[in-house]
Amino acid sequence: MNHWQYRVNSNGSWVNFSYESAKSQTYTITGLTAGSTYTIYADFRDQSNTNWANPKPEVTVTLPRISISVPTGSNFTYDGNSHTGVSEGIGYTLGGDITKTSAGDYTATATLDSQHKWSDGTTGVKTITWKINKRAITVKASNQSKTWDGSVLNADGTCEVTA
Predict the structure, then answer these.
(1) DSSP secondary structure code for residue 124 in this structure
(2) pLDDT tens per residue across span 128-146
(3) Domain 67-133 is of which CATH architecture?
(4) Which of 7, 74, 81, 97 has the fewest CB within 10 Å, making it most exposed?
(5) What are phi and psi of 9, to 5 degrees?
(6) Where are the domains of the chain?
(7) Is the pTM of the predicted complex or chain greater than 0.90?
(8) Confidence of residue 162 (pLDDT cuts 50, 70, 90)
């Protein structure tokens, strides 16, 4: 039985593990954070029966960031209600114009945390555009109707406006 211990960074606690074979082994260290750098120290605990060289081996490992998609903006038609143009997600925070009520063009930003990267490989702030379109208005006079386009509808009789 081979008895090993490891620790993460110089101030970490030693963690013991064993395996039966004298062959090369792989041991998975859990609890590490993507996008971070660690120094892993190893030590053979059964030094009385082995020719163990000092100093203890160490390796510096940088874990890659997790790739995520850039959020996309949505389009709405004005209805008097509040609309969220870009949805929250994991790995980034939103800023700028996120929720609006009035018709218009809006811009939000997405800023990554330290554990993620965009699917295009970049890590910078992304700008996301979204829109609330103006609602169409239809004017109907007698037997004539037209969707509002800024020009006048000349007709006799009653008038009805729908939006």
Answers:
(1) S
(2) 999 999 998 877 776 676 6
(3) Sandwich (2.60)
(4) 81
(5) 65, 160
(6) 2-64, 67-133
(7) no
(8) low
